[in-house]
Structures
1.
Amino acid sequence: MVKAHPWVLGLTGGIGSGKSSASKFFAELGIEVVDADLVARQVVEPGSPALNAIVKRHGESILDTHGALNRARLRKIVFSDNSEKLWLNNLLHPLIRTEMLEQLARAQSLYVILEAPLLFENGLEKYCQRTLLIDVQLELQLKRTCERDKMTPEAALAIIAAQMSRSNKVQKADDIISNSGTLAALKRKVQRYHYSYLKQVKLHSCADRQQ
C-alpha cells in the first residue's frame, strides 16, 4: 500500500464554510493541497478504466456530449437505487483512495493538506496527523451558500443535512477556525495555524530521526 506524506493535515468544513478559501491561503504559504473532490473527478476522466466500467454498466447515455461522465444523470441513478450506489462506491472508493495517497506521497512541501468536505464521514482522518475544521454558524452558512451557488435555502439545507452535523465535526476536529468574519481575518488565522503546524512537523521529524 502507498504510504502518504509523513505529515498530513486534514482540512474540512461544510458547504459555505470557507474551506476552499482556507485551502487557498495555505497554498499561498507554499503548502501543497490534495483535493479529494478533484481526485474523485480525475479517476473517472474520459478513457479511464473506471469510466469504461460505468459505461459498460449503464450504457453510452451516461456520458455527456463531450464523452465525459454526466454526473447529474449518474447521481439520479444512485440516489434512487441503493444497489447501484453500493456498486459505484465499491468501484470508485479504492481508486480514489489509492490516487489520493499517491498524490499525498508525491508532495514536496514541509507538510501537505488533504482537503475533503467528507473527511470524517469517509474516515480519511486516519491518514492525517492533525485535522482542522473551518466552522461557521448555520445562518451564515446558509446565506453564503445561497448567494454563491444561487440556490434556495431549502436546497442548501438539504445539502447541509446530508453531511455530518456541525456538533459532531467540532467534537472530532483537533483544531477549529471560526470563519464568521472577513477573508482577511480567515487569512490571519490560517497563517497562525500554519506556523503552529511547522513547529509540529519539526518535532515529528526529530522524533522520527531518534527512532
2.
Amino acid sequence: MNVKKIVGVLAIALLLWFVFTQPDSAAGSMQSIGTTLRNGADSVIRFFTQLV
C-alpha cells in the first residue's frame, strides 16, 4: 500500500477523533485556522493593491 495513502487515512482518522472527542476545541481550532487564512489573503490583496 502507498505510504501517502496511509498517511492521508491516518490524518483523516485523527481529525475525526479530535472532532468527536473534543468538539469545542476542534471548532476553536477551525475558527483560528480560518482567521489566519483570511488575514493572509487580506495581506496578499493589500500587497498587490499597493503595487498598482
3.
Amino acid sequence: MGRVVVDVMPKPEILDPQGKAVAGALPRLGFTGFTSVRQGKRFELEVDGPVTDEVLAAAREAAATVLSNPVIEDVVAVIDAASLEAVPGAQA
C-alpha cells in the first residue's frame, strides 16, 4: 500500500491567526529565534498499490479541487510518502 502526502498552506497575503498565536507562544515557552509561524494542513492519502505518476497526478487534482481552498490556500507539496522516509528526522 502506498501513501501520498499533501501539504496546504495559507497564501502569503492571507492573515494566519493560528500561526500568530503559535509565534507568540514560542518565546514564552523558551523557544527563541523563530520570527514567524504559518500554520497549514497536511493530508495523507493511502492508495492500493504503489504510488505512480498517475496516482500523484490524481492527488494533485484532488488537492487543487477538494483538499484546498484555492482562493486562500496554496498546495505546496504533493509527494510520495516513501520519499520522506529517507530523510532523517522526517515523519511520513
